[in-house]
Amino acid sequence: MASTSVSRIVPASPDQVWSLIGGFDALPDWLPYIPESTALEGGRVRRLKNPEGEVITERLVDFNEAERRYSYAILEAPFPVNGYVSTLRVHPVPGRDDVAEVQWSGRFNPDGATETEVVDLFTGIYADGLEALDKTLTA
pLDDT digit string (tens) for 101-117? Predict the structure, then answer.
């Protein structure tokens, strides 16, 4: 199983960041790559579309409001992996209440691609996503 993780300090308090990204159906609010999200099964599943119209279906597998984190599994996606589980988490920065650290991590099995290729793919997706989050928070 392969894995990757990307962290970034963003210019908002942990509560402000979590209020923006903590909803499982909130990706279109801060991630331009996902302009559309439809909540299914009472909000436990999200059906996403990217700008090319490709569908990504994900299931919420863990949610912890107090720890400001959730994990999800991919059910359907145009990615060369299986067994994908990812976690999005917001951490406080000691001694600072005006910034937060956001960590996006995932583990997965390559399927039709090398481990290096899929690690690079998701490292890029997570880094680009956290860059977009930073831009949303400073807009």
Answer: 999 999 999 999 999 99
The total of other beta-carbon atoms located within 10 Å of residue 32's CB is 14
Q: Are 107 and 29 in contact (CB under 8 A)?
A: no
Q: Name the DSSP letter for residue 28.
A: G
Other C-beta atoms within 10 Å of 88: how many?
23
Ramachandran bin of 83, using left for φ above 0, alpha for ψ from -120 to 50, beta for the remaining angles: left
Q: Looking at residues 1-7, what average pLDDT do you find?
A: 97
Whole-angstrom Cα distance, residue 91 to residue 68? 7
Name the token pair of 2: 């392969």
Q: What tens digit of pLDDT does each residue of 70-128 get? A: 999 999 999 999 999 999 999 999 999 999 999 999 999 999 999 999 999 999 999 99
DSSP structure string for 68-135: TEEEEEEEE-SSSEEEEEEEEEEEEETTEEEEEEEEEEEEEEESSS-HHHHHHHHHHHHHHHHHHHHH
Structure tokens of 99? 């910034």
Contact 101, 8 (CB under 8 A): yes
Neighbours of 61 (CB within 10 A): 13
